[in-house]
């Protein structure tokens, strides 16, 4: 019995295929990255957890000044988790096509799928890590439960959206331009201290505040903190800036993917 | 049905755009099999990628109304860090197939056993090929794309692949690319040649194949010559021996001739017809005339000559094979056999095997005799009797050259080189082709390790065989050839006395 060809698939059929492809790619990525040895899949979130714990310990030990009444452990948890979220996504997508280009021989796999599968893995890992660490810290009393979980989730999703759109844009560009990889590393290092992970906007001088708020990640981080700490955080963010920003970035990313898909040559 | 409409593919390169496919159109209906012939780099693989959908055309459209496989036996889609089993799982998921059924099939077909639990990067290339082919058979496509499947695995595995593909899936459409014309003839119902970005279709294999041979330039046997880049690169005789094999098998024309020869030889194997053996001999000989220092086909040429009863001719070929570096154990039995059949004791006529020494001490083969005969006797055709006695009796190029110098044929050649007025001589223009590759071989063997410009400046001075002799003597490049030099000196002394 030959493989059936559906000439006029319904949207539902297409979605089913899409889900199947992404599922298969996701598992393939996860297996490739974490393997079946020692704790295997658990590395997905243990790795970011170790990062966050380390930074939390460091900031606590050095009593980092961040300019608010928020306890340092909670501050580090929300700050560094968000850094992991937006910073690892482009890192995983840059050069992703080079090693996976031969997957395009499977008709249902498209360029975008390869990026999306990696982003799902990154998002999943960072989110579980953030979630588990929050639960642990809350249960031992170092951190209070978030005041507004939905707002935390909203801020978190904004950071993820920005990270994903940036990742796909850079990932698609990097296939034909190796400069992208070279520039992203220093750029991400410089962006880290400016991303709002290590300070509260409110603590900055007024002039600096308006400048720093041009960086979209800052809005997401501030929103997460407001959701976590409520009024104590005195957060500054503007959804009418950050959402259109992400939208435009996403469109750019999709255009770049389209361009790449028309030109890519499997080996 | 697959339909290509005016498909063009342009690759941007640093030297400007390169048009690989320039308006390809054809239909392929269910069950039809299209075989594509074309030289290296003609764009066959690009076309297959476009049909598969992995790559998009620059303009034109590719319509697929049936499921199309990835290029068969293609191993690139493996994730090398995953195990064979995980790769099977991935493919099963992508195509929504039952993993356990597929695993059972791949285990049975690929015979990889325990290795399926190991990462694919630890596999040998043969194991990868087996896994790749088995994976390709998991999914029941309507159309299979087959790019050089002949290269996969051993003969038994090859048979099983053919059975799976052409017997069990005989009703499917296929697009087959191969360097092996026999393969395409046997398995296709339509044929096409891809050349300069255009596809020309044929309904008859023989017509297609002769057009192909004409295109790659082996239809006219007299002009067969080695690849120019090869001739430009060789700088000494060891180069000739080492690179002839690699260059020859990468040369479409050589490969086509050898495949043709191989095919006729296998037919001769059961018809036992003299005409077939003779035809096979001609094809091998033509191939070897392109790359005379290609060692591996000399013994096969010997077999075809032996089958026609010419034992001396076969002996020449076997001795040449060994001299050029074919392992002695491959040649020794055959040589002993033909020597015995001539009523001689093999003990007295030992095999002389290639050894890596200085040029004058290297063991001569027939192509060397032809070069030396050209230089010292003025003719590159050397008869079998001379040839055999030299190969049997002389163990080095120096000894051969010495013998030739002491022969009376040398005196005439020497006269021409030094004693006659140049304008008394007429050019032997009979063998003037585009490029006389004999001259390249002479440059490589005698005028060793010269830089490109020096070689080029030398070339016009070596127009005739005695010009070569004069340059060799005047430039004193026979310094290591002690026997030859002594012989030449004695001839000179006699000349000056006489």
Descriptive account of the structure:
The complex is a heterodimer of chains A (267) and B (498). Chain A is mainly α. Chain A has one domain. Helix content of chain A is 70%, strand content 0%. Chain A has helices at residues 11-34, 43-61, 72-93, 96-100, 111-139, 149-174, 179-194, 206-212, 216-229, 239-263. Chain A is globular. The mean pLDDT of chain A is 89. The longest helix of chain B is centred in the middle third of the chain and has 20 residues, at 252-271. Chain B has helices at residues 44-52, 84-94, 99-110, 125-138, 155-168, 181-187, 205-216, 228-233, 237-249, 252-271, 274-290, 298-307, 311-324, 328-341, 366-377, 384-393, 397-405, 408-418, 437-445, 452-458, 465-474, 482-497, and strands spanning 2-13, 16-28, 33-37, 59-64, 68-71, 143-147, 173-177, 190-195, 198-202. Chain B is elongated. By secondary structure, chain B is an alpha/beta fold. Chain B has 22 helices and nine strands. In chain B, a hairpin with a 2-residue loop joins strand 1 (2-13) and strand 2. Chain B has three domains: 2-215, P-loop containing nucleotide triphosphate hydrolases (Rossmann fold); 217-356, Tetratricopeptide repeat domain (Serine Threonine Protein Phosphatase 5, Tetratricopeptide repeat); 359-498, no CATH class. In chain B, helix 12 packs antiparallel against helix 13 (311-324) and helix 15 (366-377) runs parallel beside helix 17 (397-405). Chain B has a six-stranded mixed beta sheet with strand order 5-6-7-3-8-9, sandwiched between helices. A three-stranded antiparallel beta sheet of chain B has the order 2-1-4, covered by helices on one side.
């Amino acid at each position: 019995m030959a493989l059936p060809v559906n000439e006029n698939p319904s949207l539902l059929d297409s979605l089913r295929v899409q889900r199947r492809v992404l599922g298969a790619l996701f598992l393939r990525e996860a297996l490739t990255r974490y393997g079946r040895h020692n704790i295997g899949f658990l590395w997905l979130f243990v790795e970011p957890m170790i990062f966050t714990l380390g930074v939390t310990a460091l900031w606590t030990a050095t009593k980092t000044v961040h300019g608010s009444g928020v306890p340092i452990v909670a501050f580090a948890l929300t700050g560094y988790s968000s850094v992991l979220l937006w910073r690892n996504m482009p890192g995983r997508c840059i050069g992703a096509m080079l090693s996976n280009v031969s997957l395009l021989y499977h008709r249902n796999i498209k360029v975008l799928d390869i990026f999306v599968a990696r982003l799902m893995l990154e998002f999943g890992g960072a989110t579980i890590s953030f979630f588990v660490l929050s639960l642990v810290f809350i249960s031992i009393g170092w951190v209070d439960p978030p005041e507004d979980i939905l707002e935390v989730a909203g801020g978190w999703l904004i950071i993820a959206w920005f990270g994903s759109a940036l990742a796909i844009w850079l990932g698609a560009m990097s296939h034909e331009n190796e400069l992208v990889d070279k520039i992203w590393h220093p750029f991400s290092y410089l962006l880290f201290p400016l991303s709002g992970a290590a300070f509260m906007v409110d603590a900055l001088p007024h002039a600096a505040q308006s400048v720093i708020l041009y960086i979209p990640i800052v809005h997401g981080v501030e929103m997460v903190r407001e959701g976590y700490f409520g009024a104590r955080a005195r957060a500054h963010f503007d959804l009418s800036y950050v959402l259109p920003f992400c939208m435009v970035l996403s469109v750019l990313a999709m255009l770049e993917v389209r361009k790449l898909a028309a030109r890519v040559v499997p080996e | 049905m697959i339909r290509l409409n005016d498909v063009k593919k342009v690759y941007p390169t640093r030297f400007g755009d390169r048009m690989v496919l320039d308006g390809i159109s054809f239909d392929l209906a269910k069950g039809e099999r299209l075989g594509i012939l074309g030289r290296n780099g003609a764009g066959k693989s690009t076309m297959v990628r476009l049909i598969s959908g992995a790559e998009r055309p620059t303009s034109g459209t590719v319509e697929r109304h049936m499921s199309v496989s990835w290029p068969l036996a293609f191993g690139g889609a493996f994730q090398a860090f995953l195990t064979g089993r995980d790769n099977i799982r991935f493919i099963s998921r992508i195509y929504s197939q039952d993993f356990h059924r597929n695993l059972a099939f791949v285990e049975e077909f690929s015979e990889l056993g325990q290795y399926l639990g190991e990462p694919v990067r630890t596999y040998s290339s043969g194991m990868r090929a087996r896994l790749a082919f088995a994976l390709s058979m998991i999914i029941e496509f309507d159309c299979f794309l087959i790019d050089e499947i002949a290269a996969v695995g051993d003969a038994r595995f090859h048979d099983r692949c053919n059975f799976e593909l052409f017997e069990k899936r005989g009703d499917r459409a296929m697009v087959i690319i191969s360097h092996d014309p026999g393969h395409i003839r046997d398995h296709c119902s339509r044929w096409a040649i891809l050349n300069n970005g255009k596809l020309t279709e044929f309904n008859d294999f023989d017509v297609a194949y002769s057009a192909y041979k004409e295109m790659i330039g082996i239809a006219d046997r007299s002009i067969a010559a080695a690849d120019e880049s090869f001739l430009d690169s060789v700088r000494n005789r060891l180069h000739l021996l080492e690179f002839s094999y690699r260059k020859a098998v990468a040369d479409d024309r050589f490969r086509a001739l050898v495949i043709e020869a191989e095919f006729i030889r296998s037919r001769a194997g059961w018809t036992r017809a003299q005409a077939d053996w003779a035809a096979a001999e001609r094809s091998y000989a033509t191939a070897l005339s392109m790359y005379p220092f290609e060692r591996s086909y000399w013994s096969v040429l010997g077999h075809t000559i032996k089958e026609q009863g010419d034992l001396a001719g076969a002996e020449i070929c076997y001795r040449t094979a060994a001299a050029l570096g074919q392992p002695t154990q491959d040649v020794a039995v055959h040589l002993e056999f033909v020597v015995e059949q001539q009523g001689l004791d093999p003990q007295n006529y030992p095999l002389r095997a290639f050894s890596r020494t200085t040029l004058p001490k290297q063991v001569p083969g027939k192509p060397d005799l032809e070069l030396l005969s050209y230089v010292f006797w003025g003719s590159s055709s050397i008869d079998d009797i001379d040839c055999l006695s030299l190969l049997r009796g002389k163990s080095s190029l120096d000894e051969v050259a010495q013998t030739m110098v002491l022969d009376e044929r040398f005196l005439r050649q020497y006269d021409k080189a030094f004693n006659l007025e140049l304008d008394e001589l007429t050019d032997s223009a009979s063998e003037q082709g585009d490029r006389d590759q004999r001259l390249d071989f002479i440059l490589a063997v005698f005028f060793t390790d010269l830089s490109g410009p020096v070689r080029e400046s030398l070339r016009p001075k070596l127009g005739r065989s005695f010009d070569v002799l004069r340059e060799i003597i005047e430039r004193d490049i026979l310094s290591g050839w002690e026997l030859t030099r002594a012989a030449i000196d004695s001839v000179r002394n006699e000349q000056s006395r006489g």
